[in-house]
Amino acid sequence: MSDRIVGAEVIVTSPTRNFVTLKVTTDDGVVGYGDATLNGRELAVASYLRDHVAPLLLGRDARRVEDTWQYLYRGAYWRRGPVTMAAIGAVDVALWDIKGKTLGQPVYQLLGGPVRDRVLGYTHATGWELPELLDSVREKTEQGFQAVRAQMGVPGLDTVYGVDREARAYEPAGRGAAPVEEVWDTDAYLRSAPDVLSGLRAEVGPELRLLHDAHHRLTPQQAARLGRALEPADLFWLEDVTPAENQEALRLVRRHTTVPLAVGEVFNTVWDCQQLITEQLIDFVRTCVSHAGGISHVRRIFQLAELYQVRGAPHGPSDVSPVALGASLHVGLSTPNFAIQEYMGYDPLVHEVFPHAWSYADGHLTPGDAPGIGVGLDEALAARFPYEGAYLPVARRRDGSMTDW
Ligand code: GCO
Ligand code: MG
């Protein structure tokens, strides 16, 4: 048994939406999977892996998980960035998967063993106005969810990212060669959001954890106002109030509101959230294994966060594949300051393409006890759904200029 890597293959499949999966094989025939999906830029990561990483993996010792991470991160010279870190993350998760399978242990055992029995999950509810939103939230609580992210429409707009007028679910990427363009109006949002969310709180009672995502749309001053106005809604968190590459911006928000803040789904290294964590400008850090360098790096981020009482709460919408979700649950079960896992859910076909040991019940998720990560890939089925271009929307202000959405 030598654990030499003899295969590194990239599989792109689109069972309702695009996923990029790395499959690493050892000379003993052990197979590990990692998720390399980057919504709307999938093929860039596929090429990075196929053209630049796979040849470097062949012949390497699959047991050297940390050394391989260092080799790919430092070796590239061009550090950080979503494409690089998604590729490194996929390798890292695939190697943890192989290690678990080789040792006959679920990965959470290799990360120190469980510190909790199950991982709290939150899902999405959407409705254009309060009555539909309330119906959507109730549907989710009937499925057992104890934490729900609530997104609503904005009066005067036709569309809002994250909300669907008809359906009670929302897929962030639309098929096609170019993104759909939407119109966004921050003033109208700020006028309506506090009443809708406070109205929702009044209807659902005090216990349900309610979350809301502002999706990077606000200035620091607008974010401070919104946070203060939302205090009666008693949110579990308010997410991505500003585009947080300007980390200092959160200082102003913090000065004006005690609403818990969650940031980090677009970050890919510890450096991107260092100031947010060490200055305690956030309460939850949202980095996930597929976008932030895998299990090894997300654990490092959460360990830094633990020193500052910031908790881990990874991104987990439908563009984070079942492989990354499984990997995240191994981190969740074994990491003391892990708070909650986003679980948007998947189309039934996605569950078939990626058979998995993880499961959802009663508002919680568990990774299962299969050796490794416990998520497979039905390659024959995956091959029936080739890549189709799909893009997240973009948004313009009423004067036609581009804005964050
Ligand atoms: C969330 C999100 C997502 C992102 C999407 C982009 O789940 O909190 O903000 O829905 O918009 O993952 O690809
Ligand atoms: Mg978000």
Question: Your description of this structure?
Answer:
By secondary structure, the chain is α/β, with parallel strands linked by helices. It has two domains: about 5-105, 2-Layer Sandwich (Enolase-like, domain 1); about 110-370, TIM Barrel (Alpha-Beta Barrel), CATH 3.20.20.120. It contains 13 helices and 18 strands. The chain has helices at about 40-55, 65-75, 80-105, 105-110, 130-140, 185-205, 220-230, 250-255, 270-280, 295-305, 320-335, 350-355, 380-385; strands at about 5-15, 20-25, 30-35, 120-125, 145-150, 175, 180-185, 210-215, 235-240, 260-265, 285, 310, 340, 360, 365, 390, 395, 400-405. Strands 4, 5, 8, 9, 10, 11, 12, 13, 14 and 15 form a ten-stranded mixed β-sheet that branches. Strands 1-2-3 form a three-stranded antiparallel β-sheet. Helix 5 (about 130-140) links the parallel strand 4 (about 120-125) and strand 5. Helix 2 (about 65-75) packs antiparallel against helix 3, helix 7 runs parallel beside helix 8 and helix 10 (about 295-305) runs parallel beside helix 11. Magnesium ion binds near residues 213, 239 and 240.
